[in-house]
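## retry 2 of 3
previous attempt timed out at serialization; input unchanged, resubmitting
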Amino acid sequence: MRVGDYMIARIGPEEAGLIPDGFRRVYGEDYLSSAVYDTAAIAAALNSGEQISFLARHRSGDFAGHIALRRSAPNGNIYEISQGIVVADHRKAGIFRDIFDAALDLAEADPACEALFGTALTNHKISQRVLSAAGLRDVGFEIDYVPQRMLAREGAAGPIATVVQYRSFGRGPVSPAYVSPELAGWVWRLLATAGEDGPALPVVKPQLTRRATLGEETDMPRFDMARLTLEEAGEDLPDLLDDFERRASAAGRRTAQILVGLDRPQAAGALERLRHLGYAFSGLLPRYLPGSTHGALLYKSFDRPNFEDIQPFTEQARELLSDVVLDWKSVARLDQPAHENLPVGVPASRGMYSLP
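## retry succeeded, writing output
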């Protein structure tokens, strides 16, 4: 596709070496994912279809920008829109939206693709705006996800959150979402926002299974984070969390993140227990887990979260941030007022905890 002085095209494995050089021009060696610097890995991903890359070139042949569709989620039927960059020499041409549209068109045309999601930096309003204009809706925040050192060139004063933006294509079965009464109203509204509300939510008595907890722990030193993905929550969950948090803290991680699959009744018990143990709710990853299972995002910060530098673009994101901050204050049992610049409102104004 030709757009003015630029050509936008999907690239093959033989052109994988162009991608690392492009990222070095924008981020040096400090991009969020180290995978963008591994030519061999990129070529393998392009060859297998795990990644689909679109490149913008100026008519002079100069690399101008890049964006990728990646099958990064455990559910291989959704795409992540990621690795979006435009080099400084070409930023005034407005080509980021054109590269994004090329990727969006491919995702929409793929009959197996159930949804598209992206995680935009909350100190980058351009990427938030482009995804929002394309119909992706704000459904969660990953708090303090990007360390300050990765964004030092851009003047970040602390770690930066990402906002999860999501668009459903209305394909595939609708997954159930078992939730506790205290979060039912909030989760229902986020699923409705995402176009994934489906039938009425099963609000169940919060109970943990008597079986052992099943989950996968992932250490993420590049992001100063440790993540635990819970498949099944048993009565041993509190002890498991103590060990998880000790390991994370000893390794110097700033945040412990929990992703709870909501397709089993004991998910309601996990949500209630996690919140009583100091984990705050920050949104959803719809259809993210195997079987198109919705995932609930919760986190505990070993330091005060950097809410102040979050710059939400949409009113929807601002309201969600307000609720996220309030929930953190609630589970952390803090009485002091939040920072004066935070958009904190009264939960009852949107029925944050009330059933629809």
